[in-house]
Amino acid sequence: MLRTLEIVERDEEYVGIILDQRALPLEEKYLEVRSSEEVARAIEEMAVRGALAIGLAGVLAIAISVLNSKDFEEAMKSVKEAYSRVRKTRPTARNLFWATDKIMKSISSCETLDELKEVAIKTFREMAKEDEETNKKIGYFGAKLIKDGQNILTHCNAGALACYSFGTALGVIRAAWREGKRIHVYVDETRPLLQGARLTAWELLRDGIPHTVIVDSAAGYLMSKGEIDLVIVGADRITMEGDVANKIGTYTLAVLAEKHNIPFYVAAPTSTIDPEIESGDQIKIEVRSEEEVKKFLGLEVSPRGSRAYNPAFDVTPGEMITGIITEKGILTKPFKEKIAELFKK
Ligand code: MRU
């Protein structure tokens, strides 16, 4: 099974191995990182991306800073630097903040370097395993919503590549396929960085799942022709009211789905829900470089004198979402009460 990042021990040194998603689908190559700064850059430059993968990469940054330290004081100093550096990389995905807090909590009571190293690597591996198990639960809950013969539309990449493994929205599709349902997936190319055309299509092809890549602007036309039965996307942050931040263009799909009476589902673990945020307007939306829009795979496509605007995410109001598929089951409206219930337990 595809896994996006690992820690290995080599020649008495710990190395983080990250599947470099910038090279996909043409090449499957791996990046080696030895410091938290290298991990932070891998996140900023999108070698590793997707909310859950970024979260685990944050854990990797902290773990690697401990694992390659020479004494306890140095390790504690590096941990603090790693924690604050990595949390500045990308602001929208809640899992980066959730996951880095989680490893900080587990190492906080360590008193020796050996103990710190043991707990850091154990926490990384446990969180990776938990990601995979959680996503499988999401997948098999969500698969119940998919009927044999359906056409599903997805946006961006919420697959194994966006996580440690298996995927969330794509995990649901994967689970339905494994259950024997004959499905077909329309894949939004997802400009500007083409996570759909490059990454989701690559994952679907690997699994042999029938799919067709479309330009983002074709979704409305396909819906109007009755070609889409269901939309499933992932999430970067979910508010207590059920508003969802996800890749730019997700909101457009929700509006279109509402117009055409097509169910619109979000698949995400409960760790993506931010208990401190009530509604979508409080979510910090990352704005990325103009260059990503003005260039297409490195080739200039806009005049140099033109400006571009590149918000990486948008917010879909909870009222437009049919259901949120989590590892604890499928949440339906009103989300506010159901989400509050989750946090009471
Ligand atoms: O900018 P990206 O590629 O990190 O955005 C990724 C998404 O929007 C995904 O849908 C989301 O993170 C889901 S992660 C399982």
Can you describe this structure?
With 345 residues, the chain is α/β, with parallel strands linked by helices. It folds into two domains: 5-135, Up-down Bundle (Four Helix Bundle (Hemerythrin (Met), subunit A)); 144-344, Translation initiation factor eif-2b, domain 2 (Rossmann fold, 3-Layer(aba) Sandwich). Helices cover 40% and strands 17% of the residues. It has eleven helices and 15 strands. The chain has helices at residues 36-44, 51-67, 72-86, 94-107, 113-143, 169-178, 195-207, 219-224, 250-259, 291-294, 335-344; strands at 5-10, 13-19, 30-33, 151-154, 184-188, 211-214, 230-233, 237-238, 244-247, 264-267, 295-296, 299-300, 313-316, 323-326, 329-331. A seven-stranded mixed sheet has the order 6-5-4-7-10-14-15, sandwiched between helices. Strands 1-2-3 form a three-stranded antiparallel sheet, covered by helices on one side. A hairpin with a 2-residue loop joins strand 1 (5-10) and strand 2 (13-19). The longest helix has 31 residues, at 113-143. It is globular and about 65 Å long. The two termini are 33 Å apart. The mean pLDDT is 97. The structure holds 5-S-methyl-1-O-phosphono-5-thio-D-ribulose. 5-S-methyl-1-O-phosphono-5-thio-D-ribulose (MRU) binds next to helix 2 and strand 9. Residues 49-52, 93, 156, 158, 162-163, 168, 195, 233-236, 246-247, 312 line the site of 5-S-methyl-1-O-phosphono-5-thio-D-ribulose.
